[in-house]
Design brief:
single chain; 214 residues; alpha/beta; Rossmann fold; Arc Repressor Mutant, subunit A; 5-stranded parallel beta sheet; 11 helices; 5 strands
Amino acid sequence: MIRVYLLDDHEVVRRGLRELLEVEEDIEVVGESASAAEATRRIPALRPHVMVLDARLPDGSGIDVCRDVRSVDPTVAGLVLTSFDDDEALRAAVMAGAAGYLLKDIRGTQLVDSIRRVAAGETLLDEGVVARLRKQWGHDVEDPRLSELSPQERRILQHIAEGLTNRQIGETMSLAEKTVKNYVTSVLAKMGLERRTQAAVYVAKHGSAAPDGR
């Protein structure tokens, strides 16, 4: 059974989505909400396989919810629904770890099929588009996750990528080891990373994370 969570600030839309999905024998709607804050709080506890997220909400966006939830539980697949087809939103969805970015004029059967596919581990994002956006990120477009880090946190990320232990980072930055540990936890969570080795791979691909570029 595929467990699905619905996020949309329009009740009629949520009701329509629920009715569309609940007739499917292999899909169960385990929860729904109208706000980003409520969804971010409830989804990790309900542990759906797929979250269907409205891109634009009064208190945020489904893309933010996707990033925040996946930083806690990366096994939850995100499908972003939007009325607007633009590269900026697609770029943000990709960086948030979304498995799909769909326009709201999609047919019901296509949405059901998309949910099944991402629940099975597929990604619906066009590889050519993703490659083009990743090429942009390597040049003049900064990963939006980095903008969420303070200059101190970016230095911490850089030192993690260099393989320094918490004690070594503390000595380098004149910080207590416990303080460094707290920074490391915060940095990995904001970046949606689970392990220090992932931080090293990230910096190797994207270049220096330090605020001064070194």
